[in-house]
Each structure stands twice: as C-alpha cells, then as structure tokens.
C-alpha cells in the first residue's frame, strides 16, 4: 500500500510540475501577444496622431480662409452700403431734380 501511495504522490507531483510548465508556457504566449499588440497599437497610434495633426492643420487653414472671406464680404457690404447712401443723396440733390424737370419740360415742348 505504501508503494502505491508513493507512486500516486509522485505522479501527482509530476502532474503539478507539468501543469506549472504548461501554465508558464501559456503565460509566455499571452505575454508575447500583449507585447506585439502593444507594439502594433503604438504604430497605429502614431499613424493616427499624424493624421489628426494633418486634419487639424487643414481645419485651421479652412477656418482662417472662412474668416478671410467673411471679412472681405463685410468690406464689400460696407462698400455697397456706401454706394446706396451716395445714390440716395444724389437722387435728392437739387441739380438732379432740376435736370429731371428740364427733361420733362423739353419732352413736352417737342411734343407740342
């Protein structure tokens, strides 16, 4: 009975050591997978960081262009407002009224 117990004990000890070796081998495989995954993640992270910087630069340039167009449009609007004010002043100018009256008078004089 003692010999059978010794054989069972030693075989269970051997199975335990073999289980530890298999566990260490599996842990090494997990470690390699994590390490390669991290390296791959860093490469993709750098790629997307560069891509994001490019997009931010383009976005900044587009915002600057939109501001430039907006300021130019405001300047054009001011010019149009000035032209409208000038035309309103000219429409009410006494010399222009007199010339309109003279033109009407001349047309009526030629018709008669």
Descriptive overview:
The chain is built from two helices and no strands. The protein is mainly α and 112 residues long. The longest helix has 90 residues, at 2-91. The model has no long low-confidence stretch (mean pLDDT 90).
Descriptive tags:
2 helices
Indicate the multimeric state: single chain
Order of helices and strands: HH
Largest sheet: none
Which structural class fits the helix and strand makeup? mainly alpha
User: Tally the helices: what do you get?
Assistant: 2
**Residue-averaged pLDDT, rounded?**
90
Helix content: over 70%
Low-confidence segments, given as residue ranges, are none
DSSP summary, beta strand count? 0
Q: How much is the radius of gyration in Å?
A: 46 Å
DSSP strand (E) fraction?
under 5%
So what's the overall shape? rod-shaped
Between the first and last Cα atoms, what is the distance in angstroms?
A: 151 Å
